[in-house]
Amino acid sequence: MSNAAITLDRLGLSFVGADRVTPIFEAFDLRVSRGEFVAIVGRSGVGKSTLLRILAGLAKPSAGRFDLALSDKKGTRPIALVFQDSRLLPWRRILANVELGLEGLGLSKQDRRKRAEDALALVGLADQAGKWPHQLSGGQRQRVALARALAVDPDLLLMDEPFAALDAITRRFLQDELLRIRAATGKTILFVTHDVDEALYLADRVVLLAGSPARARLDRRIDAAHPRARDAVASSDLAQDIHRALEV
Ligand SMILES: Nc1ncnc2c1ncn2[C@@H]1O[C@H](COP(=O)(O)OP(=O)(O)OP(=O)(O)O)[C@@H](O)[C@H]1O
Ligand SMILES: [Mg+2]
């Protein structure tokens, strides 16, 4: 069995406007291994969210092909997405929000409940299960969104600036939570961020998208063991290279 979780092969996607066609991707290749944690960085509008949307099946490429090595284990969903905002339903309690993604998977009510409770425990919110979304802080709500994604036991976790709206302290806390969960679950993760330091603190590899159509202007492995020293990460040669590449 191949070790690739994601294979994009000469992928193309353009948006057609009133007076012109904007190519976002053209003959774009990317390969991600199983269990790899890849950070995607790049300027606003380059196509980072579009890339995640393609992988999630929410946008259809116009050329090329992509393969996702996904299991069809009963009671799971192969892909889960986490966005910048938690997108919780205000009229459902926290546990019911986490159960939401588990509906339609053929699980019994008890199984759904148990899976949702386990996922909430994984993000450290077991004691908040009975609350309403408005009773939680922004950081807690984002952890619920992560729990909702993890509850379906996805092979591929797609995260689009999941911590961007949080204050610095909460953000650091959730970064560490994510690393802990990642170590415990071994999920393949594609993580979009504007924050170069965040990318270098979390990921095994960083891919910088640039240009129109977008290319991987830089694609580098980050081998440093966890936990990483935040200061060292921020002042590393790789950090300088990424900042330079973003400025071109
Ligand atoms: N549905 C759409 N129709 C037309 N153009 C779109 C559509 N979705 C995105 N675009 C355009 O495609 C480009 C890439 O958008 P995308 O959302 O992927 O950027 P991004 O890299 O995620 O940016 P940001 O960092 O600001 O989130 C942008 O120029 C955007 O305006
Ligand atoms: Mg985006």
Rounded to an integer, what's the Rg over CA atoms? Answer: 18 Å
Helix coverage percent: 25-40%
**Spatial ordering of strands, largest sheet:** 5-6-7-3-8-9
Number of helices: 8
**Beta-strand proportion:** 25-35%
List the helices and strands and how they pair.
Elements: E1 4-16, E2 21-33, E3 37-42, H1 48-55, E4 63-68, E5 79-82, H2 94-100, H3 109-122, H4 138-151, E6 156-160, H5 168-185, E7 188-192, H6 196-202, E8 205-210, E9 215-221, H7 230-234, H8 237-247
Parallel strand pairs: 3-7, 3-8, 5-6, 6-7
Antiparallel strand pairs: 1-2, 1-4, 8-9
The protein binds adenosine-5'-triphosphate and magnesium ion.
Describe the fold and architecture:
With 248 residues, the protein is α/β, with parallel strands linked by helices. The chain contains 8 helices and 9 strands. It has a 6-stranded mixed sheet, sandwiched between helices. It has a 3-stranded antiparallel sheet with strand order 2-1-4, with no helix packed on it. Strand 1 (4-16) and strand 2 (21-33) form a beta hairpin. The protein is globular, with a radius of gyration of 18 Å. The mean pLDDT is 95. Bound molecules: adenosine-5'-triphosphate and magnesium ion.
